[in-house]
Write a structure and sequence with these properties.
- The complex is a heterodimer of chains A (317) and B (486).
- With 317 residues, chain A is mainly α.
- A two-stranded antiparallel sheet of chain A has the order 1-2.
- The two termini of chain A are 15 Å apart.
- Chain B is 34% helix and 24% strand.
- The longest helix of chain B is centred in the middle third of the chain and has 16 residues.
- Classes of the chains: A mainly alpha (317), B alpha/beta (486).
- The interface between A and B is medium-sized, with 24 and 37 residues.
């Protein structure tokens, strides 16, 4: 992350891959490169991309968060449940959103405390939380979606400003802020340091436990934000929402060049990684490639991207 | 090995190097960091292939395409960082890679037999079923050598074998080396510690910038000459020392107890360099870590500049004005993926703005230190991974200086560093003392302690046995105290 040229170069590779992909689908499908379709892609990618932004922070600290998919579901349920309380919508909406986000932050805090105070590996902690929140979502809703929401709620996920979907705008804002936080603030620098060498970071005077806690809380909050947007798009709180989203988010981060061992990577990389997968899915849809074949192709692309990245790392060393 | 060259893109790491080792001799290989010693050894071990040149064993040309082929020819290399598997037992490690097979499974009894035989050859008694992770560093080294012996070693290369050994363990190692020598093994010995070179070596080859400067029998050279060959210039005084007036008290420790520490009383004054000597495990590093808040204390009080302090974390200690240069810069000091600049400023980010980082200021700060401390390369955007040991140490040093602490503790500040960089570090320590900073130096290198410290506290089994003045201290005296013999 240090040398500005090599920093750029690591995102250049995947950036070129994305451009090639765009060109390829533009040739293969006349509908692909239209504003309408591209905005559509940006809407489709937004839910996963917002989760992946938080996941990038966690993975940079050499952690992982498997609970995000379940947080998506439960945050959506929390928000929609608040909305079913009979008050005026203008009062209920901010309260509902804050409640949903607060749940995400709380979930992240639980993960962070388990990781720092009890020294449990992030994989196990968040695997457990994934199961707990998913189970809780089904228990609380008795397996039924939360329905009968105020009609205005759907504008959050379905609305557009100057043709641009609202979730896409929120996604761009999340990435801009995340990028600035990671590259320009003290907190961002500490995130890289903790991921690079936790003990050395502690001995350098960084309060590593606090950084880790904050990182998991941030990741939980962004997952919850995604959950609220998803609930709005579905106009309901679904207990099985966000199933397997954790894997899509991790894939975006890894394809974007962030090292699972921590300390290396960038938020821009994750954005391109998420786009690469989303564009691929959209393009294959337009070409009428069946969803099973799509899964195979996407898996192969993930492998290829990581292999190329590894190859480049080894060449540098 | 004759005419060995190794070319990397843009760099000639070795240039037409000739190197021979005879059966039954200890051939020392010395030179500054980056002189090409490790590269030469890696070529011998088959880990790297030379760009040019040939290797002969018993006048027969050989090819060494892999470490495996080198091992089969009887070439064993013991690296500074051991290649043992900590989770396996001593015996399993010794036979690793050439396990005796029964019909289907590994023959356990035979494994232990082989291991025991190899250890016996060294005159060592280590339980063959002990898990390697539980052994001391010295014992692990013995296991490494036993591993080599179990494969019929003919050429044994040791890269900085004494870096983390105590005096007594070094003597033991030397005994083993002499024994192997008498059995006709050719030994290549790499070390920065010149007294060891004179102690154990028969011949010496000096490498500088990838070229052989000289190669001659050891009795023919003296220390001064050797250093001059290594550095390429004359070093006036190996241990520069400025005599300073002792100032007022800056740090006082009263009845401090913690894990591995018992009832420590110690006072540090401005303008002095206080040495802490003792064997590894005597509580030297533990004391430093407790003062720095990295480990908790049980009892006792610490006064910094007259004010009592309770460091509960390195974060607090740094804020209060205590800095620690950790023992192992690679695993406890540096963050390898980060640049020189980022490593220098990481402990003092608050001075670069409250939320956002003032990047211009960060750049100038780092550049200033790179210049002051002569860090090379001088581009502060390089990742520290790409720096040599001496320069890495200077980066950690710069980080420490930038915290503007009142007391700085240095744990083995010159371990694994070449003569030139050592000299620079001593000069910096002097300068710090001059500025009124309390300086504590923990070191296993006794000539160094005697050369640069004003007072020397000797530790043994978690206690401070005695604090010696510079005038009264000798190596023998320190060793006697450190081993609990007085």
């Amino acid at each position: 992350m240090s040398n500005p040229i090599s920093k750029l170069r690591s995102e250049l590779g995947i950036g070129i891959a994305l451009v090639l992909e765009l060109i390829l689908f533009s040739i293969l499908s006349p509908y692909f490169f239209t504003p309408e379709n591209l905005l559509n892609v940006s809407l489709q990618v937004s839910i996963i991309a917002i989760i992946a932004a938080g996941m990038t922070f966690v993975i940079l600290t050499s952690g992982i968060d498997l609970s995000v998919g379940s947080v998506v579901a439960l945050a959506g349920i929390v928000t929609t449940s608040v909305l079913t309380i009979d008050t005026s919508f203008s009062v209920a909406l901010p309260v509902a959103i804050i409640a949903g986000l607060a749940f995400g932050v709380a979930s992240g805090a639980v993960a962070g405390i388990c990781v720092t105070k009890f020294n449990i590996t992030p994989f196990i902690v968040t695997l457990a939380l994934m199961t707990i929140w998913r189970g809780a979502a089904f228990v609380y809703t008795e397996g039924r979606p939360v329905w009968e929401l105020p009609a205005e709620f759907s504008t959050l996920g379905g609305g557009r400003i100057l043709q641009v979907p609202l979730p896409s705008i929120i996604m761009v804002a999340v990435y801009l802020i995340s990028h600035i936080v990671l590259t320009r603030t003290r907190f961002g620098r500490y995130v890289y340091a903790v991921g690079g060498n936790r003990e050395a970071a502690r001995l350098a005077g960084i309060r590593t436990e606090r950084i880790l806690l904050q990182v998991y809380m941030l990741c939980g909050m962004l997952a919850a934000l995604s959950g609220i947007l998803l609930a709005s798009r579905m106009n309901s709180g679904q207990p099985n929402a966000g199933l397997m989203y954790e894997l899509d988010a991790i894939a975006a981060v890894v394809v974007g060049g962030t090292s699972l061992f921590g300390g290396r990577g960038s938020i821009i990389g994750t954005f391109i990684g998420a786009m690469l997968i989303a564009v691929l899915r959209n393009g294959l849809n337009l070409l009428n490639v069946g969803s099973y074949v799509q899964q195979v192709i996407i898996g192969v692309v993930i492998l290829l991207a990581v292999m190329v990245d590894q190859f480049r790392m080894r060449k540098r060393a | 090995m004759s005419g060995i060259s190794k070319r990397y893109p843009g760099v000639l790491a070795l240039e037409k190097v000739d190197f021979t080792v005879n059966a039954g001799e200890v051939h020392c290989l010395v030179g500054e960091n980056g002189a090409g010693k490790s590269t030469l050894i890696k070529i011998l071990s088959g880990a790297l292939s030379p760009s040019e040149g040939s290797i002969q064993i018993d006048n027969q040309p050989v090819q060494l395409p892999s470490p495996h082929s080198a091992l089969r020819l009887g070439i064993s290399v013991i690296y500074q960082d051991f290649k043992l598997v900590p989770e396996l037992s001593v015996a399993e490690n010794i036979v690793l890679g050439h396990e005796p097979r029964g019909l289907l499974f590994i023959d356990r009894r035979k494994v232990h037999e082989i291991a025991r035989a190899a250890l016996l050859q060294l005159g060592e008694e280590i339980d063959t079923s002990a898990i390697v992770g539980t052994l001391s560093i010295a014992q692990r080294q013995i296991v490494e050598i036993a591993k080599a012996l179990s494969r019929n070693v003919r050429i044994l290369a040791l890269d900085e074998p004494t870096a983390s050994l105590t005096e007594r363990e070094i003597e033991n190692l030397f005994r083993v080396i002499r024994r192997l020598k008498s059995e006709g093994v050719g030994i290549i010995y790499i070390s920065h510690r010149l007294e060891e070179v004179f102690d154990i070596g028969d011949r010496v080859t000096v490498l500088r910038d990838g070229k052989v400067v000289t190669s001659c029998p050891l009795p023919q050279v003296d220390r001064r000459k050797l250093i001059q060959w290594m550095v390429g210039r004359e070093i006036e005084d190996e241990y520069p020392k400025i005599e300073l007036q002792r100032g007022r008290e800056i740090l006082r420790i009263e009845h401090l107890s913690a894990a591995g520490l018992h009832d420590i009383d110690l006072t540090l004054y401005k303008g002095e360099i206080l040495g802490i000597a003792g064997l590894v495990g005597s509580g030297r590093s533990e004391l430093a870590r407790v003062l720095f808040g990295a480990d908790p204390k049980n009892e006792g009080r610490i006064f910094l500049d007259g004010k009592e302090m309770h460091p509960r974390s390195p974060h607090e200690a740094i804020n209060e004005g205590i800095g620690l240069l950790t023992e192992d810069r690679n695993t406890l000091g540096l963050i390898m993926q980060m640049s020189v600049k980022e490593n220098i400023t990481i402990s003092s980010m608050k001075s670069l703005g409250s939320l956002f980082i003032d990047e211009a200021k960060e750049q100038t700060t780092a550049m200033q230190y790179a210049k002051d401390l002569n860090i090379r390369p001088s581009t502060v955007d390089t990742e520290v991974e790409n720096l040599s040991g001496g320069n890495r140490q200077k980066v950690v040093l710069a980080r420490l200086l930038n915290t503007h602490a009142k007391v700085l503790i240095f744990d083995e500040p010159t371990a694994g560093i070449d003569v030139g960089a050592k000299h620079e570090i001593y000069t910096i320590l002097n300068r710090l003392a001059e500025q009124g900073i309390g300086v504590v130096v923990i070191s296993s290198d006794l000539p160094e302690v005697l050369g640069i410290c004003d007072r020397i506290a000797v530790m043994c089994e978690g206690r401070i046995i005695e604090v010696l003045d510079r005038e009264n201290a000798t190596q023998e005296k320190i060793m006697l105290l450190a081993t609990g013999n007085e």
